[in-house]
Sequence to fold (510 residues):
Amino acid sequence: MRNIKLVLAYDGTCYAGWQRQKGQPTIQELVEAAIAALTREKVILHGAGRTDAGVHAEGMVANFHSRTGIPLAGLVKALNNGLPPDIRVLSAENVANDFHARYNARGKCYEYSFIVAEIMPPLLLRYAAQVAMPLDLDAMEACLPLLVGSHDFTSFEASGSRESGRSEGKGAVRTIFTCRLQRAEEDADGICRLTIAGDGFLRHMVRNIVGTLFAVGTGRIAPHEFAGILAARNRAQAGATAPARGLKLKEVFYE
Amino acid sequence: MRNIKLVLAYDGTCYAGWQRQKGQPTIQELVEAAIAALTREKVILHGAGRTDAGVHAEGMVANFHSRTGIPLAGLVKALNNGLPPDIRVLSAENVANDFHARYNARGKCYEYSFIVAEIMPPLLLRYAAQVAMPLDLDAMEACLPLLVGSHDFTSFEASGSRESGRSEGKGAVRTIFTCRLQRAEEDADGICRLTIAGDGFLRHMVRNIVGTLFAVGTGRIAPHEFAGILAARNRAQAGATAPARGLKLKEVFYE
Fold:
């Protein structure tokens, strides 16, 4: 039995997210179907995480067990032939039998793209959020060091997730390795990018952090209040959930 | 009677191009309909040019005559409310009565985006062409100075355009002001961009130039043959038409 690790990229615009759901198009379902069509086996594809509806990925990782003898390069080509062009298998690798894309993941890196503009440029519509008011990027940047390190991120967790999605018994404590903001001037398309890497993320955590940073940027929340919001462990104190289309899973880290 | 100049941006993916066509969604038709709904006048919107199906724009210019008293800022907002989000009016301006977006244009700037990759990244699918073979960018770049200046560009004109689309009696002679290639290393997304500005462009001219440059890059045409292809005034000697999705009208120049 082989254990095959895939790295995947997708445009999440037309999908109800990663995870299989009855009656909705999802990435997991389509990739599992492409594998099944190729190998004639019913497989379960284990993703490193679940991206929400509309969220994109440049480096999602997943694994599945199979008896197929197809060489790796042929597998990548054949799977891509069976998938719509907005989902691509970037690479395939044979891994140890006990490798699991989710349990073995040591961390993930996300990027959130946004643009400050009164009129949303049509060519950025799918891949960036729009903020129509001026943003104080210095104030937003001042909050970023507060996120780094190990914290209970309940304030930034989607409400109602406590019983359902929480994994591995670590509660709501997550460790953020780095968090930085690249400003529009450094980008050809005028996009600001928030990059955040950590050992794991709660449901909607990145989008809730970004939504709260937007509230700081527009002055609704003062930068000195940000630490208090994090410490409060209370979703009601943080800002709104930023739109899914700005979010992209860049990379999943393994040892 | 006012003469109003608009600057427009659009994602051409879902449209049959700029120009009104029976039974097909076009940019011109939708913007004319938005103007009519707002002003209660039937207007003709004169575009600076016609972008083909699938071609994008960041700075298309168009004008229309109207008796409306709506101030410019309100006009921009109201038109955008009436348009789908993949078409945006960026600005409006009152101009002299004899201004005509096409006849007064002194030039245009286009950008063609492409990526050299075996697997097309899903997030670039709408806005860049894919070249799956390695490209000799030095060889391609060596051809660019040959394009600059005034030339008869028949070799790069869509076949069958001679009788139909040719305007203003200048035949197939056009003047290219600048033509440069920005390499993938200089771009965050790994996109190569060919920027070309000139006083006018024949039908499919940029895409045929790019298709021919791809043939140079992959070695099917030698760089020294490029001048001969241009001089031949024969469409059959040049390369294929590069895909529409890589092309973007960046700007229209006026005096």
Q: What stands out?
A: The interface with chain A takes residues 9-11, 56, 58, 76, 80, 85-90, 119-123, 125-127, 187-188, 248 of chain B (CB under 8 Å).
